[in-house]
Every structure is written in structure tokens, then in C-alpha cells.
Amino acid sequence: MEKIFDVNPFVVRHKDGLDTVSINHFHVIMQFLRGRRTFGESHRLRKYIKKNFTLSEFNILKVSKTNIVVTVTNLSKNEVEYKCIRDFDYDEFCDWIWISCNYIPFMSLVNKNECDYGDGGFSSLVPIREAINRGAKEIDVVILETETEITKRTIGKNPFSLMVDLFQTLLIQVEKHDITIGKLAAKNKDAKLNLYYTPIKLTDNALVFNKKHMKEWWDNGYNYAQNKSDLMSDSKEL
Q1: Average pLDDT along the chain, 238 residues, taken 10 residues at a time
Q2: pLDDT at 150 (0 to 100)
Q3: Fewer beta carbons within 10 angstroms: which end of the chain, N or C?
Q4: Sign of dihedral through CA atoms 196, 134, 78, 119?
Q5: Phi, psi dihedral angles at 8 (to 5 degrees)
Q6: What is the pTM assigned to this prediction?
Q7: Residue 235: what pLDDT?
């Protein structure tokens, strides 16, 4: 968390092997007093991105055949924008990667080119159609939710946590819409679409970053997807 937030709007407590999340009242009040528009700030994340995505790696990718695109939401114009690595220098593209991660209003709202930007997921969470429009013929889509709702959700017991739950509900609906549109686009363009869901529910709050848990999610999800692919291959052979 400390590598992402320079102003963390959450307090995470560990008890009996579980994480409980509550509002950091001091940080949120200070944000209001400073005239900030978000509950938290995530400028440390930008530094972390540049530390782990080097200039030399950027240059190699930029001249390669790989077309890397990030999605951002232009809140000023109320529309989605796609930023391609080929169109920007290193610092600019790192800015767009960072902006694409900023879950408003809990992370930084970024003003760039006289517009306010945030997480691309608010407008296009699973941009399958955009990938097809850019020429993709086979698409692997990793969806960080189970295919069906496994357990009943526990809704927040205070306005702040309720807001987090509300945003997650809205994003899930955007996700479902994007997948539906993507399936239609794939069918019309004769593109192969591989959907990979998670085997278990990952978290109740996607803004709590626990390295140990996230590594376990990655390993479990990779193995699950790999086994699913093997099963699909076997069924085709049969």
C-alpha cells in the first residue's frame, strides 16, 4: 500500500487472518481541507511504475511489432480514450499507464492536456471491441471475477464503504456490457475469444493491495487458466 498511496484513504487491520477495511478519517479530512477532489492520492504509484518499467524496456517495445495500448477515461469529455505506446515518449506513456490505474475518487485525479483523467475501467473495463478494431484475431480476456456470483455480498455499513461497494457494482455492470458487445464483435469479425474467469472470489475491496495475497491470486489463476485450456484442447481432440 505504501508504494501506491502517498495519501491512503483506508485503514487496513489484520485480525484472525482476515483484512478489515475502514476509512482513514484524518487523511480524508486533510484532503478536504487542502481543497483536493479525491479521498486519496497515488503519486507514489507513478514512481513505482517508472522504477519497474525502464526506459530501455520501453524503447525495445516501442520498435517491436507489439502494439501496447492502455485505456483511460476522459472525465471532462465523458469518453474513453486509448493510448498506444507508439504515439508517446517514455514519460508520457508512463503517465498514461499511471492514469489508467487511478480509481477515482480514492486515487489521484490527473489533469493532462487541459482535461481530467481517471481509470479507463469507468468507461471501458474490458475493451474487447477495441482490440478487434485494431486487428486482433485471437483475444485472451482475463476477468477478475468468478463466472457466477458464488456468495452473497456484504454491503458496507458506513457511507464510505458503501461508496466502494457501489462503484464495484457499477464496474461489474460495465464489465458485463463490454463482454456482451465483445462477443458480438468477435462473431462478426470472425475473431477467437477466450474468456478466463477466476476460480474463487478474490477480494471485497480491490483497493487493498496485499503482496502475499496478490501473488497467491496470480499463481492460482494462472494454473486454473492453464488447466482450463488443456481441458478445452482435450475436448476438441475427442
Answers
A1: 92 73 88 93 96 96 92 95 96 97 93 95 89 92 80 69 80 88 92 88 80 88 77 47
A2: 64
A3: C
A4: positive
A5: -90, 120
A6: 0.84
A7: 43
Residues 41 and 142: their CA atoms lie apart, in Å, by 27
What is the pLDDT at residue 200?
82
Q: Which residues contact 72 (CB under 8 A, 6 or more apart)?
A: 80, 81, 82, 83, 96, 99, 100, 117, 118, 119, 120
- Rounded to a whole number, what is the distance in angstroms from the first to the last CA of the chain? 48
Q: How many helices (H) and strands (E) does the chain have?
A: 7, 8
Find the DSSP H helices in 64-199: 90-101, 128-133, 159-188
- For residues 11 and 21, the answer to whether their CB atoms sit within 8 Å is yes
Number of neighbours of residue 94 by Cβ within 10 angstroms: 18
Q: How many whole angstroms separate alpha carbon 236 and alpha carbon 133?
A: 28
Beta pairing partners, 221: none
DSSP reduced 3-state for 48? helix
Q: Which of 90, 167, 70, 80 is nearest to 115 (CA)?
A: 80
The CA distance from 215 to 82, in Å, is 28
CA atoms in the 13 A half-sphere facing the CB of 8? 15
Q: Cell match 475491496: residue?
A: 205
